[in-house]
Design brief:
- The protein is an alpha/beta fold.
- The chain folds into 2 domains: about 150 residues, Rossmann fold (3-Layer(aba) Sandwich), CATH 3.40.50.720; about 160 residues, L-2-Hydroxyisocaproate Dehydrogenase, Chain A, domain 2, CATH 3.90.110.10.
- Helix 2 links the parallel strand 2 and strand 3.
- Helix 3 packs parallel to helix 4.
- It starts with 9 loop residues before the first strand and ends with a helix.
Length: about 325
């Protein structure tokens, strides 16, 4: 019997749509990771995709074998992961939500092209505002909601861990904490469940001789929220941190790790996508993970969700 391979999935093939600073940095990070053996770059300006492919290919002899090339939407048919980074970049003085209209229009041209190909893999949204665009992509794509999600606050959470680790002078990988809600100005640091290797954060602060705990929390949360603005004011764009975040998400998918990551997925309670810890594996978002929140954190999470809902209604 002849097998129709048009629907066969190549689990080691990834497609990146959008080859700007973010898309290019993700491509470079994934080339070094060894997760995939084939990578396709798609951009509305094809020469840009070709140039990125040529440049990154020249580093392959120092890494692992990989086929990297510029392509088009037909190349997504058998991919396991499609990463969308296309859109207008956040500029100095802009919030992520300022990008809404332009990037929704861009998505209205991209997502239907993906839907036409009967794509069977995971659709990972990275473009900002990521929560809004993930919600839009879910509506336009027709894919099951578990297979389409955004990078969410994975990067914000890493920034939080970094700042806490720096404050306590410890390895940030030992810090367990989350930023939840919007990937943006209404994000929330979930201090109620933060800990260092199982030790409540407040207790660990006292162990390290830090007794100005409440003041430190306020400063750390503010620094995390403003990180992108600070970086953009200095170098016009952020891309290395998000590239590493996307690599981490792809690891969870390709290796079926069932890792707990604060990706942006559909939250039935709020009828919108926003970031909460979720189990992520080969089938995408497996389930949300309930975490301990105090009354203020729950109230601010609702406020964050309403902020996004109001934007969608405009």
């Amino acid at each position: 019997m002849k097998i129709d391979c048009s629907q066969c999935m190549n689990f080691r093939k990834v497609v990146i749509v959008g080859c700007g600073f973010v898309g290019g940095s993700i491509a470079f990070s994934l080339m070094q990771s060894g997760l995939f053996s084939e990578m396709v770059l798609i951009d509305s300006y094809r020469a840009k995709a070709e140039g990125e492919a040529m440049d990154i290919n020249h580093g392959v002899p120092f890494s692992k074998p990989m086929k990297i090339y510029a392509g088009d939407y037909d190349d997504i048919n058998d991919a396991s992961v499609v990463i969308v980074t296309a859109g207008t970049n956040q500029k100095k003085g802009q919030t992520r939500l300022d990008l809404v209209k332009k990037n929704i229009d861009i998505f209205k041209s991209i997502i239907p092209e993906i839907e036409k190909r009967k794509f069977k893999g995971i659709l990972l949204i990275v473009s900002n505002p990521v929560d809004i665009l993930t919600t839009i992509a879910q509506k336009l794509s027709g894919l099951p909601k578990n297979r389409i999600f955004g990078s969410g606050t994975v990067l914000d959470t890493a920034r939080l861990k970094y700042e806490i680790g720096n404050y306590l002078d410890i390895d940030s990988r030992s810090v367990h904490a989350f930023i939840i809600g919007e990937h943006g100005d209404s994000e929330i640091a979930a201090w109620s469940c933060a800990n260092v290797s199982g030790i409540p954060l407040e207790k660990f602060c006292h162990m390290r001789g830090h007794f100005e705990y409440e003041k430190a929390k306020i400063k750390i949360a503010k620094d995390v929220k403003n990180s992108a603005y600070e970086i953009i004011s200095r170098k016009q764009a952020t891309y290395y941190g998000i590239a590493m975040s996307v690599k981490r998400i792809c690891e969870a998918i390709v290796r079926n790790e069932r890792s707990i990551l604060s990706v942006s997925s559909f939250i039935p309670e709020y009828k919108i996508c926003l970031s909460m810890p979720a189990i992520v594996g080969k089938d995408g978002v497996e389930t949300l993970v309930p975490i301990q929140l105090n009354d203020d954190e729950r109230k601010n999470l609702l406020k964050s969700a309403k902020t996004l809902q109001n934007i969608l209604e405009i």
